[in-house]
Amino acid sequence: MAIQFQRLIIILLSLILIVGAIILILINSKKNLIYFFTPSELAESTLQTNQKVRIGGFVKKNSIKNKLNDDQSIIFIITDNKKDIIVEYQGILPDLFREEQGAVAEGTLIKKNKLKAEKVFAKHDENYMPKSIKKQLEENYYWKTDYFSEDIPQFNIVSLIDETKILSNQDINNKLSLINFFASWCAPCKTEHPFFIKLKNEFPELLIIGVNHKDNKEDAISFLNMEGNPYNFVGNDYDGNIGLKFGVLGLPETFLSNKQGKIIFKHMGPLTIDVINNNIIPYL
After folding, report:
1. 275: helix, strand or coil
2. Extents of the domains making up the chain
3. What is the C-alpha separation between 158 and 254, in angstroms, rounded?
């Protein structure tokens, strides 16, 4: 076999291998391609189920709830003020996830109007909202100019001790409030508890609200009877829905809100003397 012919065969085989590699890369890229839609764009698209997508919009008011018989799964609705997409997600939601705030859900389309999400991005998450999605929301008059304000979320919570009493976000307007999420089974909550009693004694004008999160009612009341009750009001968040609205990831978590209804400080984990002196007392 002539040397020129051997070289030609080698070149042809190399070209075949390169073309094959390119085809495999393109096929793999197509499989991993994730399309980005607003709910209205998705409704008008020809996209099939089992396709990976990202949906950008706002979390619809009063749409966040636990899936029936499954405390670990959350269902909420993403809207662009024209169309809605139902999102089912299992996992911990981002800290800044809120109703009526921007969010992006990434996952598999199981129906034309339903997404099983694997990831959820909210607000300050890096690159969470592309310019094209923002433009669509602006055209639908659903982009808020005060989007980055940290308002206290809307809530109504029944008293842990007296079920005839209910506290709402409206009740704490015009008041400096410290909102503490705790549970009787939470060891760090017991560590920080004496600090709330001290704050109550030293700053009686401060409204201290306890939110008993995913706890047994009798255990929670026993905990307060034993350790002392520093709260002006204790609410029962047995299903965790109030915690979801605040973006609570774990216990304890504490929020300080001002008289304008804005959250001005948040602390994850047990309070310490340094945290209280440096981040809470200056506002008191």
Report:
1. helix
2. 35-139, 156-283
3. 19
CB 241, CB 214: distance < 8 Å: no
pLDDT in tens, 42-101: 888 887 788 888 888 888 888 888 766 656 688 999 988 888 999 999 888 776 677 877
Who contacts 264 (Cβ-Cβ below 8 Å, separation ≥6)? 150, 256, 257, 258, 283
Cβ atoms of residues 35 and 53 within 8 Å: yes
- Pull the structure tokens for residue 211: 């939110």
- Nearest 10 degrees: CA dihedral of 48, 51, 52, 54? 10
Residue 236's nearest CA partner among 156, 139, 154 is: 156
Alpha-carbon distance values, 215 to 38, 134, 211, 251 (Å): 38, 39, 10, 11
In terms of CATH, what superfamily is 156-283? Glutaredoxin (3.40.30.10)
Of the pLDDT bands very low, low, confident and very high (cuts 50, 70, 90), residue 34 is: low
The torsion region of residue 251 among left (phi > 0), alpha (psi -120 to 50) and beta comes to: beta
159 forms bridges with which residues in the sheet?
235
Do 251 and 220 meet the contact criterion of CB atoms below 8 Å apart?
no
Closest-CA residue to 234 (of 179, 152, 184) = 179
Q: Lowest-confidence range among 54-58, 163-167, 173-177?
A: 54-58
Six token digits for residue 246: 């605040």
* CB distance 234 to 160 below 8 Å: yes
Burial 34-50 (b: 16+ CB within 10 A, else e): eeebbbbbbbeeebeee
Q: Which two tokens stand for residue 216?
A: 């047994």
The correct answer on CATH 3.40.50.720 for the domain covering 35-139 is no
Q: 3-class DSSP state for residue 250?
A: coil
